[in-house]
Each structure stands twice: as C-alpha cells, then as structure tokens.
From TrEMBL:
Subcellular location as annotated: Preautophagosomal structure membrane
Residue ranges occupied by any Autophagy protein ATG5 UblB domain in the UniProt entry: 196-278
Autophagy protein ATG5 UblA domain: residues covered: 8-104
Similarity section: Belongs to the ATG5 family.
Alphabetized UniProt keyword annotations: Autophagy, Isopeptide bond, Membrane, Protein transport, Transport, Ubl conjugation
Function per UniProt: Involved in cytoplasm to vacuole transport (Cvt) and autophagic vesicle formation.
GO MF term set: Atg8-family ligase activity; cargo receptor ligand activity; enzyme activator activity
Signal peptide: none
Summary of subunit composition and partner proteins: Conjugated with ATG12.
Limits of the Autophagy protein ATG5 alpha-helical bundle region domain: 134-190
Stored Pfam families: ATG5_HBR, ATG5_UblA, ATG5_UblB
UniProt protein name: Autophagy protein 5
Amino acid sequence: MSEIRKLIWDGALNVQICVDDTLVLKGTSTTERLLNVRIPRDTYIVVYLEGMLKKLQRFLRFDVSEVMSKVWFECDGQLLPWYYPMGVLFDTIKGSNSKKGELASEYSINVWKIDLKYALSLPRGHIPIVDEVDQIRSYWMHQWKQACFILNGSSKAMMSLSIKEAKKFWKSVINREQDEFDKVSAKILSRRPQFIPLILHRTNSDLEKIQPTVSLVNSNGSIKKLLNVLLEVFPDDFTNGMFSGCVVSQGIVVSLEDDMFNLYTKLRSFDGFLHLIVKEIGT
C-alpha cells in the first residue's frame, strides 16, 4: 500500500505553457512565450502560477502582481478549473490509454500543452485568484473539512488541528513532503469511515462532476464495490448488465470489482477526496 501511495505522490506531468500574446511585450517570439514545467499530479496547477509568471517576467507587459487575478488556463479552448487536482484535469480532458491497474507511463513522456490566457473579462466558470496563495490554501482546507465530515460525521478532527499542524499540512503539499503530509492526514482519516468522500467526473465539455453519498456496504450488508456505485449513479450507462465505459483514477484504469474503501485508501487525492473519471469507451 505504501508503495502505491508513494507512486501517486511522486506522479507528475510534463507540461508546456504557452503564454497569451496579449500578456507579453510586442516582439516576443513564440519560443519566448513557452515555458516547460513538470507539475505533480496531486496538486493544483495554480500553485505554480506565480512561479511561472516570474520566470517570464522579462517578457511580460505587466508586473506579476497585476495579472494574477486576470489569467486562467485553457487546453484546446476549454477552461481548466484550477480547483481540480492536476491529474484529474489531465485524465478528464486528455484521457488514459493505460492497461487496467497500470500507471500510464506514457504520461511522463508526452508533453501536455496548455495555454495561459489573459483578459480583463474572465470566462464563465472561472474563479479568479484574488488572494493568491491564501485563497488556494483556504479552498484546499475547505475540501479537507468536507472530506472529514463525510468520513467521520463531523469536521472535529480537521478543526482540532493546531495552527502549527495546519501550516505543516499545507506546506507538505507545496514542498512535496509526503511523510509530513501522511502524519497530519492520519489524524483526519478514519479506519471505519461512515461514508467515502467521492467525486465522479464525466469526460464531457462541461467537466461535469457528481458527488454521491457512498457508504462502505450495500443495503444487503455486502461490501460496496465500484460497480455498485456506477449502477446507482449511471444506470443508463449499462447495457445487459455491462458497463459501457471505464473508470480512471490517478492515471490508472481501475477495476469495477474493487471495493470503495480499498480504492479510497489507495487512490485518494491530496484534497481528501477520491476522484474517479468516468469515461465512455473511445474517449
């Protein structure tokens, strides 16, 4: 289990950022507008936004502090919500060709091309970054409070963290310190959770997400499997009892026979939720 968690923590994507020409000085070449970065799957892309802009500062028309609230990320014209984990965005938009149960090794070779857009008028659905890192941290902490409530029936374990522990928790994400992250998260997680913090993502143009209530067992007392959840949430996606798609998490195609608690334990994200991407065959 620890090996799987480490693979997930260390997983990263090669990304090429192309900066909008309206954001750079006249005469800046296409090459100068490109920035190649490697971003962990289990983080928010916006965590790296300020660093990206600072690397390109000499080409920018404005100071970094002036543009933070007026930029957003897109892929092929589709808005990338910064509040989705990076790996979730990739698996939802670019898909997965990995075999069942395997990490998609091609992800570490291919380069995901993303546009950094700029305008005074922001696109529909985008949440601007107005408080920089404080806003990102507050959102992430809110996610953990939700996850804690779902797991334990209250947010007490999360709210009981000392100020020092809460700071260490966030710092462990920024500095990629898994041991520190695990120490704090262990105080929130439950060995016998009431429900599973789950978010289902659909691979459609709206990046639809669904947050069902998922217990550990079915009404007859049997262990709840992923198949049971899909039958409850997406009954129209089954033909003669067969699911017409596949499910991806952390770059892995998962088995429909996996039980939900096991999936959560192995593949949960850094925000306390298990993110599952429900894909149609061929996407």
